[in-house]
Structures are given as structure tokens and as C-alpha cells.
Design goal:
- By secondary structure, the chain is mainly alpha-helical.
- The protein has two domains: 2-135, no CATH class; 137-189, no CATH class.
- It has helices at 2-16, 26-33, 35-38, 42-51, 55-67, 73-78, 81-92, 97-107, 114-132, 138-143, 149-163, 174-188, and strands at 165-166, 169-170.
- It has a two-stranded antiparallel ribbon.
- The termini are far apart.
């Protein structure tokens, strides 16, 4: 069942964790309250909560994984739980303080290797810095800093292409490539 659940929710999570959080759905909430769902391991519950837009539940499950010695650091890091957690906090909840606090607690675990502890410390600094500034939203805000357009595009392209790259190479769908090319054209004016 865990494999099927993972496959089922993988695509849902990819989209749902990129959209702002309006309100929790009553139907999804009842689904997550089911005894069989509640008995799932934390990682599966977190992913299912994200797929069903129960973001507070997803964040709570992730925070429990980050602080519990039941979950080894390698799994948390390599399986993307840190990325998922930060993504939901920042993209969906637009909350920078919560992940900064959770990551500080995570970094105190004695089993965190030094290189990961260093990365986490930098993430905490960045989250605090971004959280301290005024919110920047909309196309006009993006246009106000035109000297960084090419750099911003390069980062976006790297992120998008990286998402379509695997052990068999780079496989960016034609429509995604066309979208990137159009953005590049707009940036260059």
C-alpha cells in the first residue's frame, strides 16, 4: 500500500505544494481522520496531507520527523523531507519563521553530520533574512530589479531543467522548454 500511496500522491504534491493555502477542505479533513490513514507512518501521512491540501497536518508531521530519533538523518535528507517541509512553509504558507525555528531544532540533533548542519544553518539565516524583508509579489516587483533579470532566469531554468533530469539524462517536455524560451525572450527585451 505504501508504494501505491507514494505513486498516487507524488504528482499531486508536486502541484499542491506550489499553490497558496486557501482553506482546508472538509472532505480532505475527514479523509485524513480515517483510522487507517492516521496509522500510516509519518512520511506517508505528511505526503498524503500535502496531496489533500491539509498543510498544517503535513507540517506537523514533518516537524515530528525532524526532531524524532526514530527517523535517521540520511532518510530525512536524501528522501527530500527537508525540501518538502521548507517548500510548504515558504510557498504555501508564506511563513519564514516556522521553518527557521524547526530547522534550528533539527540542527541540534547529535546525529546531524557537520556538512548538513552547515547547510541547515545557512538555510536558517536565509529564512530569517527573507522573513525580515517586505513581501515581494507580482510582476511589477520583479521588473523593478531589471539588472538581475538574466541571473533570475538562469536560476529558474536551472531549477526547472533539474526537475526533469534523472539518471537517463535531461528530458524537458516541449511545452516547458517553449515556456522557458518565451521567458528568456521577455527577459532580453
Amino acid at each position: 500500500m505504501q508504494f501505491e500511496l507514494h505513486q498516487f500522491t507524488e504528482n499531486c504534491v508536486a502541484c499542491h505544494s506550489r499553490l497558496p493555502d486557501p482553506e482546508d477542505s472538509q472532505l480532505s479533513s475527514r479523509f485524513m481522520d480515517d483510522a487507517q490513514i492516521a496509522a500510516l507512518p509519518l512520511p506517508e501521512r505528511a505526503q498524503l496531507a500535502m496531496a489533500t491540501r491539509q498543510f498544517d497536518r503535513a507540517l506537523t508531521a514533518h516537524e515530528a520527523m525532524l526532531t524524532s530519533s526514530e527517523f535517521d538523518i540520511g532518510s530525512i535528507d536524501l528522501l527530500g523531507y527537508l525540501d518538502d517541509y521548507i517548500e510548504v512553509c515558504v510557498r504555501v504558507k508564506r511563513d519564514f519563521a516556522r521553518p527557521a525555528r524547526a530547522l534550528e531544532a533539527f540542527a541540534k540533533r547529535p546525529d546531524v553530520r557537520p556538512s548538513l548542519r552547515s547547510d541547515v544553518s545557512q538555510w536558517v539565516k536565509d529564512l530569517r533574512a527573507f522573513g525580515a524583508g517586505p513581501p515581494v509579489e507580482g510582476l511589477d516587483a520583479g521588473r523593478s530589479d531589471s539588472q538581475n533579470d538574466e541571473q533570475a532566469y538562469a536560476r529558474l531554468e536551472e531549477f526547472v531543467v533539474g526537475g526533469y533530469t534523472g539518471s537517463s539524462g535531461e528530458h524537458v517536455p516541449a511545452d516547458v522548454r517553449a515556456w522557458l524560451d518565451e521567458l528568456k525572450r521577455l527577459v532580453r527585451g
